[in-house]
Structures are given as structure tokens and as C-alpha cells.
# Entry
Amino acid sequence: MSKSTLAADTGTAEPKTLVESAYRNLRRDIIEGRLPPGEKLRVEHLKDHYGVGAGTLREALSLLIADALVVSQGQRGFRVAPVSIEDLADITRTRVMLESEALRQSIAMGDDAWEGDLLAAFHRLSKAEEKRIGIDDREEWEERNRIFHEVLISACPSRWIKHFLSILYQQAERYRRLSLFLQPIPRDVHAEHEALLQAAMERDADKAAAILGEHIMLTFRSIEAIPREQLNHPLAA
Amino acid sequence: MSKSTLAADTGTAEPKTLVESAYRNLRRDIIEGRLPPGEKLRVEHLKDHYGVGAGTLREALSLLIADALVVSQGQRGFRVAPVSIEDLADITRTRVMLESEALRQSIAMGDDAWEGDLLAAFHRLSKAEEKRIGIDDREEWEERNRIFHEVLISACPSRWIKHFLSILYQQAERYRRLSLFLQPIPRDVHAEHEALLQAAMERDADKAAAILGEHIMLTFRSIEAIPREQLNHPLAA
DNA sequence: GTTTTAAAAAATCTCGAGAAAATGTATTGA
DNA sequence: TCAATACATTTTCTCGAGATTTTTTAAAAC
# Structure
């Protein structure tokens, strides 16, 4: 299981520096909605909360611009990136295009080790689904879901496609979290994942890509159906 | 002509802050090869050259990570992103996929104003091609070439596709510059651009996408043909 | 001659304080 | 009452100096 998509990815390595630590904490708080969309990010206030200096926090915020989770404008400081249904639709469509292509290439290139990784990731995800009741297990499920999707396309040789997809996945996860405060998941995600696994193992690229595309689109529709007010409706350009 | 692809894009606006100014100068020096691939970027040394403080320069370098022009590793500072033929091949393939799709959507959605912008951009590019002899005009041509490609896909409604393409274009430009120190352009770029314009104006999406794909691939092959030593061969993972 | 160990040098990373800019508030005038 | 101006507060932006970590250099041991 490869650890990173593109050079200097601060993906899963241990935080060796305070900048990286602040970067991760900020990213988590934005994705999980504790820092709502559009919120002003005052350095003087945040540096105390995250226990770092002003310069260090500014650097962490600069890093988050790469993930499009933070925006900055001239001399007016930083803000949490705004959200909108239009943006989510764009993210979804772009993700369907890239992830379908990546899956096709992955199915074409994947070897036995890939099949093994895929089975293992699916198994771990299933186990997390079985005993998922409380909110405590949600983090675990989110992580394993992410890894399952990552392993699916891991045999795709294009680092750039995987890099872009990791950004889009992160964005989509933020929308999912923002809506999931009250909304339970109605659809049978497990069945979709299982069908996806089966198609991938059978090396049926067309079938797998179709299922994956539908899988991503369904996630979009379940969020789209939620009234806009529930999305912590910030501004939306 | 829209000015930016995604929020907080430091694209063409005036540099209002020292961080932004340093960011631009650094980006230019990396793309144009003055800071060669793999080069160590020592903050203490660079802060004098760019006339800013250490913290400011660090922030500018953090911004450049978003463009994948700079990489950082833990406690070992910053480096100019390495180059390799494999990476360029990846960039090219990904760009062909995204830019073809963007062009199709742009042709489908573009209105009269878009056609006008396209004609204007082509005209400015042609004028720059006519009297392109010295190296001084190269900058002008590069800029107008970038704008032509940008206008081509400007009617594509997906901000994310355009955002990713702007990153990939920047990457491709760096490779082009690195190889163009000695290599002149043998192929008839003007004719390709003209065919592209015509197909776009005729709203022939298939034809336009095919020409564009071939156009991008040809650029890759002309660089690929260059011996690796000429690419300032740094390390290449 | 090679490897290991240890000190010295360099570079990164971090912080707090000062200058520039933007935002908010109150006062003045019509 | 409303608009415009001037002042005060807040916040961003910037810099230089100090603490860790990495890298280099040199000596010592095998």
C-alpha cells in the first residue's frame, strides 16, 4: 500500500514539525465542520488554540490553500473555503471522470498483490460497517472507506490523477460531514462496495467504472437532497 | 475573459503583499529554469536575493507546494521539484484527458462572446509569432500561448477541471523551458493552432479534441526526443 | 584503510515584537 | 436623518533573533 500520491504529500506520515501538526489539526477541524465554511481565520486567535506562533500558523494556513480548504485574499487574511451545491456538483462530476479512468487503468495494471490489498481493505471496511452504531466508530469507518477507494485505484500508474483525486476526495468528505450531522445514510453502501469489489476482481473495467460512477453520484444526490440551510449555509458565491 | 480558475488563485492580480511578490518571483525562476530541478532552497540564502524576511520566504515556498513546483521533507527544508521523463509523460497524458474534456464542454457551452475572445486570443498569438526572432519576444509568445489555451476552455463550466489544468499547464511549461535552452521548435505550431481555432469555431468537438490531443502529445514527443542530459538531469526518483 | 564516534558548523524551525493596512466607531456638517 | 470625515481599534503582515535538528568535518579506534 503506497503511502503517498505525489511528492511532499503530508498524507499519513508522523508530524515531525509544528507546522505540519497545526496543518493537520486545522485540516481536520475544517473537514469535520468545527470551523464552518466562510469562517474568518484570525491568526491571533487561532495561534493560542493550536498552541503555535503566529508565523507557524500562517505557514500551516498557506499549506491548506493547496487543498482548497482555505482561501486568502490580498491583505484581508484567511477564510475557510466556502461551500455551495454548485461546487459539490462540480467536485462530483470531476471525480467521476477521474476516478473512473483511474479505476480502469488500475484494473488493467493491477497484479496479485493489488487484488490482495483490495480484499483486505474491503474486509476491514466490512468489519467497521458491522459494528457501526455510535459516532465514535464513524471516524474509523471514514478512514477505512477512504483506504478502500484509495486501494481500488492504487494500481493506476498516474501519480497526477491520484493526486487530484486525493484533493477531490477530501473536498467531498467535507461536504459529507457537513450534511451528516443530522442525515443518516439511507442507501445500502455496503452492497455498492461489494459489487464494486466483485467487478474489480473479475477485471470487468466497464462494469466497475459504471458502478463506481453511480456510487459517487448517489452520494452527491443524498447530500443534494438536504435543504441548503442544513449545510451551515455560509455565503456561496 | 475570466481572471481566475479557483478561489484564492494568485494568478494575474497585482502583488499586494511581499509574500505574493516573493511567490511570483520564485515561481518564475523555477519555471524558467534559473532554479534548476532538485536544487536545495536555503531560506537564509534566498531571503537576501528576494529581499524579504525568512518567515516571508518560507510562506512563499509553502504556497509553491500547491503548484508542485517545490517539495518539502520533514525537517530537511525545501527543494525545487525534481523532473523526469516519466513525470512529463504523466503530465501530458493527464492533460490530454482533462483538456480534451474541457474543450468539448467549452465548445458545447460557449456563446458569441467566447467566440470573440477566442478570435482575439488567436490574433494576438499570431502577431507574436510573426515577429518572433529574439529571446525577448519569447516571454510575450509564452504568455499569449497560455492565454489562447485558457480561452479555448474558458467556457467549460467546471472550475475544478480548469484549476487542475492550470497546474498541469504550468508544469508542462517548465519542461518546455528546460528543454528549449538549445532546442528550437521544429514543428509548425501556428498551423496546429489555426486548425484548432477552426474546429472550435465550427463547433466540431470531436475534431477539436483530436487536434488538441495531438497538439499536446507532439509537444511531449519533441521534448522526449531530447537527450536526458540536456534536461539539467537532476535526480529523477 | 575502513568504520565508528564525537565535536563543530550550518540550516531549519520557531517565537514574539514592531510596521502597515483594514475594519469599526464616533463626531461633524448639511 | 443621512452622509462624509476623522479617529481608534483590531488584524494582518513583516522582520530579526533564539532554540532544535541535520549535516559536515575531523579525530580516534579497530
User: Anything to note?
Assistant: Chain A has a mean pLDDT of 86. The first strand of chain A starts at residue 40 and ends at 41. Chain A touches chain B at residues 6-8, 13, 16-17, 55, 58-59, 62-63, 65-66, 68, 70-75, 81-82, 87, 90-91, 93-94, 97, 101, 157-161, 163-164, 168 (CB under 8 Å). Residues 85-231 of chain A form a domain with the Four Helix Bundle (Hemerythrin (Met), subunit A) fold (CATH 1.20.120.530).
